[in-house]
Amino acid sequence: MHQTLLLRSPAGPAAPLGPLTVFLATARLDITEAFRARWFHFYALVFCGLVGVLLGFGLTESRVMGFQGLSRTLVTYTQLAMAILPIFVLISTVRTIAGDREAGVYEYMLALPIPLSVWYAGRFAGRFAGRFVVSVLPVVLALVIAALWGVANGVGVPWRHLALDIGLLVVLIWCFLGISFLISTLTRSADAAQTVAFVVWIVLVAALDLVLLGLLIRKQIPAEAVVGIALINPLQVFRTGSMLLFDPQLVLLGPAAWTLFDIFGERGFLIWAFVYPLLLGLLTASLGAIIFRRSDLS
Amino acid sequence: MIRIEGLRKRFRGAVVVDGIDLAIPAGQRMALVGSNGAGKTTLIRCLLGEYHYEGRITVDGLSPHGDRAALLMRTAFVPQLPPPLRMPVSELVRFVARVSGVDPRAVAAIAERLSLPLEPIRSRAFNKLSGGQKQKLLVAIALARDVDFLILDEPAANLDPPARAALFDLMAERGDATMIISSHRIDEIAGLVNRVVELDRGRVALDDHVVETLAPDRLLRCEVRLGAQEPVFARAALDWGLQPDDSGLMWRGAIPAPDRLRFLGFLTRYSALIVAIRVEEHEHADASP
Fold it and tell me: How many domains, chain A?
């Protein structure tokens, strides 16, 4: 005999649950899904391996040269991160909206009482947390180890530089996550989204300081245009910002970065290096949210 | 009450739903039938607020877009194709419970009635379940929710016969909910519905209010002539109260008028066997067949 009393939820149709509850449930779903994915384990292995190797070299070097060796290790990591992190964020994120729409996930999941903007925000937060865990957390942990090692050996730790560099990594993730979500809402298939993401990355890499230098010389492009491009290229902004922390003379960078530094000064450029990617990420993600709400879900 | 007025949906210029007007009173159970591409799923997705459309839809005064969360809180849905979710079963049930307020114990109880014990599969990825298991789980989640509207798109498509029978029993128990059941097989859901709307190329081709046109106390006289004797048909026909003549080829009887759809659905299974059908309105139920 069936227990019919159990066959319905005790409460009748209720008011929609609070946005925060739905947001947290969606973000949690996204994070746990990421933790189960193979790509996540692969990237985590790559980033952890990279940090581990660099940390090993950094500690070895710093026995001779003090904490400066470790600082250089961090610079190396941020330079590598600049090359890897944006494409990692783009490729692993652009499938989010387009892929789920294409696969028919939304037909069911968004027939549940979930406001679209809350779902979008929850997924954004989940993706952000996932990318943070993969790419920034290993650095933070490595730096904690390194800092403890530095303190134990009586070597000064450049806390400000470390905090700023980690902050720059975080805003870089944020920025490219926003761009990824915009691409994902604009494209109708996961393949198209990945192609667009790759093109965007190539364009941004091509617009880096050193490439621009070639253009400046060969094509006689006005210096203002080159500086302007460098200023709005989030990769260049990150690169300049992160190098600025360790190399105030910017001897390692090209003319655009030097000009930017000349215009803004260290403090001004650091503010720009944090505010601009944050705003760009927010703007692109918001635009994506508007397009998502206005387009068909399946 | 669901009101659909002048609903039109195009995809890149192609009109898929072409000016549908429907009013579905509270508590009505409507079968939505039609061939592939008739517009059934598109109509359902418009109702769920998943498509933008021309025209107007209100559900108890709520708009699928403007009042999305409030409306979906009162609506449960089973899709035709289960989504390719990689999350474990327990995660899916937990998520739905969190966002819709459904009791996971109620989901488990209904799944059990559909012959799907959740405990052994709770850690399995949803997309690794068989087609039938996925369908049962989604049906269990939908029916466990205490909602006013049930929208089921081919709910029995992947179910085995016992699960199908259990599903229809469960749906019959939900007498209070307004239901829209999309199906290719009207015979399966005929006994559950009191209205049939057939779509053809995005338009309403047939709108049959079964109960309104046939009083519940009336009988239909039926005659069915077969081309050959068939024991399986004979057993089913006897269940319907039909009697054969001496040749065993002509079957006669009377059926309650509200069972008309279900009876015709039963006959469709033997369409190759049947050479003639006659169904006409008869006297009241107390009259002899």
Answer: 1
